[in-house]
Structure formats: C-alpha cells, structure tokens
Amino acid sequence: MTTTKKSPYLGVIEGFFGRSWTFQERYDYADFLKKVAYCFYIYAPKSDPFLRKSWQKNWSTETEKELQSLVKHYHSQGLDFGVGLSPFEIYRNYDESAQKKLAEKVGRLNELDVDILCLLFDDMRGDLPALAKTQIQITKDVLAKTTAKKVIMCPTYYSFDPVLGKVFGTMPEDYLEDLGSGLPSEVDIFWTGEKVCSDKYPDNHLKKVQQLLKRKPFLWDNYPVNDGAKMSKYLHLKAFENRSNTLDELTSGHAVNPMNQPYLSRIPLQTLSDSYAQGIHYQADQALDKSLKSNCGDALAKQLKNDIDNFQEKGLDNFELDQLIKKYADLESPYATEILAWLKGEYAFDPECLTD
Predict the structure, then answer these.
(1) Segment 43-100, tens digit of pLDDT
(2) In sequence order, which residues have a C-beta less than 8 Å from that of residue 261 and are 6 or more positions away?
(3) Cβ–Cβ contacts within 10 Å for residue 40, how many?
(4) pTM of the predicted model as reported, rounded to 2 decimal places
(5) CA distance 146 to 30
(6) d(Cα 158, Cα 356) in Å, to the nearest integer?
C-alpha cells in the first residue's frame, strides 16, 4: 500500500524577468494551485517597476483594483497571497527619507491584506562593507510595520554560486553569517541552493545552510523558470526530479519560480506536488504522464510526449519551426497557444536577466 506525506508550505512565486502573466492568468491559477495542494502565490514579477526601481511610487488605480480582486480570490480558495518588494539598492542610503518612503510603501501593501511580504535584495550590487547590517535594519523596520503573517527576506547573495559575485560584486566577509545572527528568528530567508538554478538540493547542503543562517532556508526553486538568455530557448516541461524525500524537513517552505508561460508551467508544477505526497514512491515519468493528461487532454498530451525532449534539451535553434508550428496550430488549447507563441519568438530573452 502506497503511503502519502502531508504537503509542506509549497507555492509559486512569479519572480522572473521578461513577459509576465496577465491578471486573468493569475486569477485562474488559484483554482489550479488549490487542486494540486499548493498553499500560496507570490506576486513579484520583475517587470513591475512599482515593486523595483520605482518602488516609492504607487500602482495605478486600475492595477491596485486588480490586485485587491486577486487577493480576495486567493483567500476565497483558502490560499495565501504574497507580494515581493524589491526596494532597489535602498541600503546604499537608508536615511530618514528612505525610511519614511519604505514605511509608506509597506502601509500600502497592508491595505491589500497580503499574507506574505517578501523583502527582496536580489539582483542588486552588494559589495558594501555594511551590507548585512543595513539589510538587517531594513528588515526589522519592515517587520515592525507589516501586517503580513510571514516575512521572507532574500539576500543579495542567495546561493554559493560564484556567478553572483561576478555580476553583483564580491560578497562582503561573513555576510550570510551576519544575516543569520542579526535577523529576527521569525523572518524566513530565501535560498536557491548550490547554484542560482539548482538541479538538486542535497541534505548535507541544506544542513550547512541551516547552520549558516541559523534557521531552515526557505527554498526558492528556479525550476522550471526559463527567462534567461539561454533558458528562454527551452521549455522546461519535464517532471521535478532530485528533490530529496527529506526536503520538507530541511526547509521552512518551498517557492517555485515558474516559466513565462503560465499554462505550460502547470505541467511540471503538478509533479512537484506528487513528489512531496508520494515520497520514496514517487516516479517522475509516471507523474509527468499523469500531469500531461490531466492538464492538456489526450491529443495534446500525446504530441507533447513526442516533442518534450526537443523542447527541453535541444531548444529553438535546433529544430524545424515551420513543421512544429503547423502541428500545434491544429490543437485548440491554451497550452498549444503558448507553445505557438514560443515557437514564433514571442517570449524573447529580456537582457535585464543579469544572472544568465
């Protein structure tokens, strides 16, 4: 008899560069996430300037109404709703004016009734000696102001991957240790693993990070995201693999960064839920077959099964586009529509994706 495990605090963070999802797509995702035993959705698209470089400004009235409606819908489905705020390089001059503007922004987010507030310091310069000290103070100020039940902080250096030092400057000495010691214990810390885009999360690695941060890391899983210069030429549709059976015991939560294609992302996302539920009995191939059929229907599932290796491993530059476009043009489905748009170059690389 197959035993099942209770799903952990598992959710989606829309945290990629490039073409973001529409509000209707986000709205529809609540039903899907509930069906596959996910717990939360976090709104954090890199394309929203009012969460990043123009964070001091407010959304338009129309956007704010869309967000309010979105929060209510997720709550009606029993799901938590979060927002990812990236106050761009605020730590370079965290003076009285910056503190006031940050407090005002958090107050506006409180009006949305968000459950999760993410304070994101990723994709910013970090080679400053007082980086940890200032980010700790900013986080404490946010914690004192927010009404969210959970605060998650993303460090500037959120992995041991050397690419972060190359792109954002050398990590200050003892940066991660200082964050672990200085941040209040109730604040979670995002971590992407040994790499920015990790394909596995070994137990010994997560235990090491837990010691370093003095808390279990909150996993930011960069699969199946495909927003980079290289990755945008691929569709990551295969089932999740190499996620330890003890992952839920070694992390405080698991946020998945999906692809720019919301419907196609559902295919791998469903398999992760199965991975947690089935534990040691999980088989990726079976989970993929199940997800393809339940999400896409028999005809499209069969076609995708034939093409999935090419989409995931060969990429756009290495197959006959005209033939594939003809195949998927005959299949009426939002999944097929996204494949066609991808084949036609409508999900082109965004050069702001600095970590690729």
Answers:
(1) 999 999 999 999 999 999 999 999 999 999 999 999 999 999 999 999 999 999 999 9
(2) 226, 235, 338, 341, 342, 347
(3) 20
(4) 0.95
(5) 24
(6) 15
